[in-house]
UniProtKB/TrEMBL annotation:
This is Phage protein, HK97 gp10 family.
């Protein structure tokens, strides 16, 4: 993300010193900061998503205040962009399903006591995507964006 001093490729480059959980996809970022930095096609996508959900939320969750509804719609739409980026780090994109994706399992070279070894671990983008999807479901349920899917 632009203006993120810790993002790979930006000034200040990479994660803070001693941070072994550095991510390159932005899936763990604060959605508000992501929204504030969105431009172009991503901003237009978020705006379209908000607009497409608004009428359903108004109709099916009238008890949610307008202010809260708009904040939740903005959050859910922004999370959609974030989830797309996290999944692209894992499985790629429809346009390029392999290029740039690190896959489900990633390798990390490590050193300990002068010995070098490789560790295989799950791509952290999977965890980000799972957390994002869970939050999106919570918002959808509160705003009743899937009427008839879950009857109370």
């Amino acid at each position: 993300m632009a203006e993120n001093d810790f993002a790979e490729g930006n000034a200040g480059g990479g994660a803070p010193e001693l941070n072994t959980n550095a991510e390159i996809h932005g899936g763990f970022a604060d959605w508000r900061k992501v929204y504030d930095r969105l431009e172009g096609a991503d901003r237009a996508r978020v705006d379209r998503l908000i607009e497409s959900m608004r009428e359903t939320a108004i109709e099916h969750a009238p008890e949610v205040s307008a202010e809260r509804r708009e904040r939740l719609l903005k959050e859910k739409a922004t999370l959609s962009v974030m989830n797309t980026r996290a999944m692209a780090d894992t499985i790629g994109t429809p346009e390029d399903p392999v290029g740039g994706a690190r896959g489900f399992v990633i390798e990390e070279d490590r050193e300990h006591a002068g010995e070098h070894y490789t560790v295989h671990k799950a791509n952290p983008a999977l965890g980000a995507s799972t957390a994002i999807a869970a939050r999106q479901r919570m918002i959808a349920e509160e705003l009743r964006l899937w009427p008839g899917f879950r009857e109370e």
